[in-house]
Specification:
Length: 263
Amino acid sequence: MKSNTSKKSLEPLLSALGFTDKETDIYMLLLKLGEAPAATIITQTKLKRGIVYAALASLEKLQLITTQTKDKKTYFRIEHPSQLLRVTKQKVEEAQVLSAGLQKLLPDLSSQYKLAVGKPTIQYFEGEEGIKEVFEDIYAPKDDIVWGAVDFEASDEAVPSYIVDKLIPKRIKNKLWAYSFFADSPQSRKLKGVDRKSYRKCILVDKKKYPLPAEIDVYEDKVAMLSFEKGEFIGLLIENKAFAQTLRSIFKLAFDARWDKKD
């Protein structure tokens, strides 16, 4: 019974590590026998000779089995199962390298995708964690200015102090410039007071005359929209060069018109 339970538990793990069905069968057999010549493995697995030797070579390359000669016959001997942890760690490291490489290629791939499908890329996010995911993209390192409009009292109600305590320091560290319209409030005035050392230019607006219940940010070829309505936190991330360029121009126009005036 223990052997069957072990087999049922181990087979999915070996498959997840990239083992073929044949490699799994041979590994499980050697785990049971300890060691065996190729002839025994062929007989008990009922696999073709070439398939068995190919699988044994793969397991040996992973250092999960070793060979030794006895009476002029080659025996295949299983290594301690802890070797599987080493293989797992190696797979994780390889996956991390692949992930980092893909992350670098993603902007180019996204551009190719947009050309291929011919329409904007729209991502939809819900809840507090969804909003934070959009924020992480907004505040990620980039060479572009982030243009935006926000009411910090509304955002703080959704994610208390998250922008001020977590994201703004990250933006400053990355030397990412922000040109923003802030709904006038004590907190906004405090932030405006440190604009110069915060890589930011902001303009305060009368929130009664110009309410900003949702946040909008424009950067690179993206437009991020965040709604902080209580219980219905929603985020949209639209990637489209024309949309971003048009909205950026509107921000610039409004900013240029107000920048030289006192708030």
